[in-house]
Structures are given as C-alpha cells and as structure tokens.
Design a protein that fits this description.
alpha+beta, Jelly Rolls, Heat Shock Protein 90, five-stranded mixed β-sheet, elongated, disordered C terminus
Length: 446
C-alpha cells in the first residue's frame, strides 16, 4: 500500500538519526516566548504544553503531545521564532527535528518546505480550533453553573425572608384548628352524641377512597338502599367499606354534613403539619442534608397527597392501583410533597381537558420502589421537558406560583437526596412521571 503524503513527510524528514534528540522526563524542550527555529516531531514519549499569563505565577496546561505529534509549529512556520508555550517532557522522549536550513526534498515536485508541510499546518490549526471550542463550551457550562448557583442563593434568601412569617401563620392555623376541634366535639357530645360519632369518623380517617372506588361503591348503595346518585357518592366517600349502621340511613344528609366537618378538620390538621416542612423544603432547595428517620408507607403518603388536593381533583377521575410495598425509611412530609407537586401540575395541565384522568400506580421493581403518575393532559413539548426540573422554570403566569417554578425542582431535589430518579415522558396520549426510590438492605423489616 503506497504511503500517504503525511507518512512520506515523516519518512523523508524525521528518520535521520543525526537530527534526533533524547529528552528526559521533566526537561523543558521549549520555554514560553523563547527563541525557537526548530519543528519537532515526537517519535516516542509524551510532553505537555503550558501557558503562563503575564503577571501570574500559575502555568495552565493547554495541550499534550504524544508519538506522532508536532511541536513548535507556530514559531517555525510563522517565522516569529518565539515559542507560544512552555513544552515539558512528561516521560523520557525521543524527538526528531528540522530547521530552516534543512533542505527541501524534491522541491521541483512538491514545492518549498512550507508548502510540503501544509498538511501539518492545517492539522495544527484544526487542533487549536478544537481546543478553543472545548474551552468555550467549558466556559459556558461554568457560567451556567454560576448562574444557577446565584439563582439558588436568591431563592434561599427569598425563602429565609418569608419563612418566619409563614411559620407564624401556620402555627396559628394549627393551634386554632385544634381549639376549634375541641370546641366542636365538646358541643356535639353535650347536644348530639350520634353526630359526634360522624365527626369522629371523618376526623380519624378523612377521605381515603379513590374516585373510581367511590363510583363503584355508590352504584352498590343506590341499588341496595335506593339512595340518589349524589347522596350515594357522598355516603361512599364517608363509609367506603362495611355496613351503614349507627344511623347513617336515618338522616343521611345530616350525617354527611357532620362527617364533612370531621373530614375538613382532618385535612386542616394534615395541611398544617405539612406546611412547616414545605417551607423548610423550599429553604433547603439545592441542599442534600435531608433527615430520613421514619418508616413510611409509600401508598399512604400517596393517599395523603390526594387528600390535600381534593379541591383540585374535584373534576378529575383518579385511579390509584397500589401494590404491596415494603416500608421505606425517609420523611413522609417530603414524599407527600413529591406526589402533591406532580399531581398539582397534572391538574393544572388538564384545566382544558374534557375528561381529565390521573392514573397512579406503585410497585416494586428490582431493588427499587416505582411510582408512576400519568395524566391525559396535553403533550409537553420536548424543549419544555428538558427544563421542567430547573428551579426557575415555569410555564404558569401569576397565581400562587408567582412564576418561580419551584414545584418540580423540589421534586427533583428530594428524589435525588434519596439517590432516586425522576423522569418525565410525554406524548399526545398521556404524560407520565416515573419516580424510583432505592430500597436499601434492611428496608421493609420494621
């Protein structure tokens, strides 16, 4: 096979033993801004090129050269004869060289020395362009990281500024809720003991049944007791299982009203409890020191998030398919935040969907807990999907989000703190969030 022009240059100019030198590791071949009239070819070994800015004592490595590379291209062909960088051997090296006194081989056929080495010059320019591109990309990434860090600092300062007032407000809501609860129960016990039982049931359990189960249970109640559709649904929410003894059928509408009081107080308790931790979570945006101390039923945390979002879910058909899961060690408040943020975003996305649906499933996949939350809202464009977990990204205008776009960034932070993962896939059919949380050895044995 005939030699390439590049190989011909090497054979013609760099195989002469009299123009070869041996350089030991650590020895400088060229010094920055020093005089150089040679073009070096690396036969063996590895060298590094270093640049030192004026007034600085720090040398920055700008390139490395191993066998087959050229050194001194700029100073040799530009005829400035000034080395642009310091070149130091990283290992024992063998270098071949030519200078301007080296006679050109077959100049009639290939032209002068500079013309014959045009491929070398072009290759050097290409490498420098590649290095400049890499440096530009690295600088852009660094600036983006700096910008993100500044945004995170701003968000932290904002959260710290409002946290005190929010915590005071939540404290008042929590204490007043307990006070109101005590007064209501006391009045009912004195005047209507049976009504107190209905309030107690709503207070203790809240509404745990899904929309699909409510519809199924309501059909049974309509058939068995002749209840109207709306009333049957209300009873199905309050008494999802078991019989309807203890007066539920005597004055059903009144029983439901008392149960609603208990359920609302139950939800207010949960909301007050989680609000403090939600503020804390915003303050911790970007932090990784998350406390994980309690055994958690992940399915129960999903139910609690649905309870907190009842007003958002009134027109949404929710289908929850929980699997038998092992217990998980973590913060229940943080898990509720994960599910609530994703479900709330789904509700917002389906504001113009005719028959909005949310499908939630939980299962074990290998050594991970897998939760999927799907909705049939509009497709999320790919350009938006790439940004939804960024802390300052939002497609909302006004409202309680204030354009900060914190919800899904909090989801990402919390999931990452457990060494888990969250991804979103979207099509014209549905949008699916998949959250994986690792089950470490010993989990589920509480």
């Amino acid at each position: 096979m005939p030699l390439t022009r590049y190989q011909q240059l090497i054979e013609a100019y760099f195989r002469e033993s009299s123009r070869q030198i041996h350089v030991i590791s650590g020895e400088a071949v060229l010094a920055q801004d020093s005089h150089n009239e040679r073009l070096y070819f690396v036969v063996e070994g590895e060298l590094g090129g270093y640049y030192q800015e004026e007034g600085s004592s720090r040398q920055i490595q700008v390139f490395s050269a191993s066998a087959g590379a050229f050194i001194g291209v700029h100073s040799f062909f530009s005829e400035t004869y000034l080395a642009s960088s310091t070149v130091i051997a990283k290992s024992d090296c063998v270098l071949a060289w030519i200078d301007h006194s080296t006679p050109a081989i077959e100049p009639q056929k290939y032209g002068p020395l500079s013309a014959q080495f045009t491929p070398v010059i072009v290759n050097e320019l290409s490498q420098r362009q590649r290095r400049a591109m890499q440096e530009t990309l690295a600088k852009e990434r660094a600036l983006k990281q700096l910008h993100t860090a500044e945004q995170m600092t701003t968000l932290g300062q904002l959260a710290a500024g409002i946290a005190h007032e929010l915590n005071n407000a939540v404290g008042v809501l929590s204490s007043k809720t307990e006070r109101l609860l005590h007064v209501i129960l006391q009045l009912l016990e004195e005047n209507n003991a049976q009504a107190s039982e209905f309030v107690d049931q709503g207070l203790l359990w809240g509404q745990k049944v899904s929309s699909a189960d409510v519809r199924k249970r309501a059909k049974t109640l309509m058939s068995a007791y002749g209840l109207e559709k709306d009333l049957a649904k209300a009873v199905a929410r309050a008494v999802p299982h078991g019989d309807l003894s203890s007066g539920w059928l005597n004055e059903t509408e009144q029983a439901i009203r008392f149960w609603n009081i208990g359920r609302d107080l139950h939800d207010m308790r949960i909301a007050a409890k989680h609000s403090v931790s939600i503020v804390k979570s915003v303050k911790q945006l970007g932090r990784t020191d998350v406390e994980t101390k309690e055994w958690i039923d992940v399915n129960d945390s999903l139910r609690k998030s649905l309870a907190l979002l009842q007003s958002d879910l009134r027109r949404v058909s929710v289908h929850f398919s929980p699997a038998d899961l092992p217990k998980f060690i973590g913060s229940e408040t943080e898990l509720v935040q994960i599910w609530a943020n994703i479900i709330k975003n789904a509700c917002d996305a389906m504001s113009h969907t005719e028959q909005p649906e949310i499908h939630i499933t939980s299962r074990v996949s290998g050594n991970k807990l897998l939760v999927t939350i799907a909705n049939n809202g509009p497709e999320i464009p790919e350009s938006i999907r790439r940004q939804v977990f960024q802390p300052n990204f939002t497609t909302k205008k006004g409202g309680l989000s204030f354009g900060l776009g914190l919800g899904l960034s909090i989801v990402k932070r919390i999931v990452s703190s457990y060494n888990g993962s969250v991804v979103v896939k979207s099509s014209q059919k549905n949008t699916v969030f998949r959250i994986k949380l690792p089950i470490e050895e010993g989990y589920g044995k509480a």
